[in-house]
Amino acid sequence: MTDSVCVDTAAQPQHCVVWLHGLGADGHDFEPIVPELAIPEHQAVRFIFPHAPVRPVTINGGMQMRAWYDFLSLAPVRGEDYAQVQESVIALQQTITALRQEYSKVVIGGFSQGGVVAGTAALSEGASPDGVFVLSAYLPDFHRAGLTLSAEAADLPVFQAHGVHDPVIPVAFGRAARETFEEAGTALEYEEYMMEHNVCLEEIRALRTWLLKVLAA
C-alpha cells in the first residue's frame, strides 16, 4: 500500500493511522477530517490514506474504479470476490509490519469497504494493529477468504460505528460484526447514529476520544 496520501499532524510523528476509503473513492476522501480530530502536538500522528487498486467492479457494470475488492453481486458476505478480499487483507497486514519499524503505535481503520478490510485484517492471524476503527462496514466470511480468526485479537481496542438508516450496508450487518468482535474478546466500543451511509460530527468526536486513548495507552 505505497500509493497513498500522507498527512502529519505535527513534525516528527510518533504514531501512525492507516485509513482505508470506501468503494469508488480514493485516499483523498477522508483527508479533510484530520484537522477535525485535533490531535495534540505531543501525540503527533502520520495519517496514511492509501489508494485502492483500480479494478473492474461487477455490480457497477464492470466499470473501472478504485476498490479493495470486487463485488460480484450486491450482497454483503455473499457477493464479494474473496480472493481479492484476502489479497487486500494481506497487503494491509504487510503494511502494519513495515510501519512498526518506525512508529510506536499503528492504528488501522476504514469506511465501508475500507472498514471491511481493516476489521478483517485486525481479527485475522498475522500482523496485529494497536487498534482498529470500523465505520459503516461489516465483516465477511473469514473461511471463504482463506483467513483464520486470531487468538491475538482478545483485548484489541475496537471502535465501530454505523448509521441506523444506512441503505447501502444495513445496520443489521454492522450489528452482526459487533457480535463477531465481542465473541473474539476485543475491547469494543460500538455506536449507532441517526444517519445513512456517511459519517457525522458526533461520530468523529467519539472516534477522536477513542483514538487518543489508544495512542496514550
The CATH homology group name: Alpha/Beta hydrolase fold, catalytic domain
State which percent range the strand residues make up.
15-25%
CATH architecture: 3-Layer(aba) Sandwich
Low-confidence blocks of residues: none
- Described by the principal axes of the CA atoms, the overall outline is globular
Mean pLDDT: 96
Instruction: Please bin the fraction of helical residues.
Output: 25-40%
- Largest sheet, strands/sense/barrel: 7 strands, mixed
Main sheet: which strands, in order across? 1-3-2-6-7-8-9
Count the domains.
1
How do the strands and helices of this protein lay out in sequence?
Layout (H helix, E strand, L loop, with lengths): L3 E5 L6 E6 L13 H4 L7 E6 L3 E4 L5 E4 L15 H18 L5 E7 L1 H11 L7 E5 L21 E7 L7 H13 L3 E7 L7 H16 L1
Parallel strand pairs: 2-3, 2-6, 6-7, 7-8, 8-9
Antiparallel strand pairs: 1-3, 4-5
Helix pairs in contact: 2-3
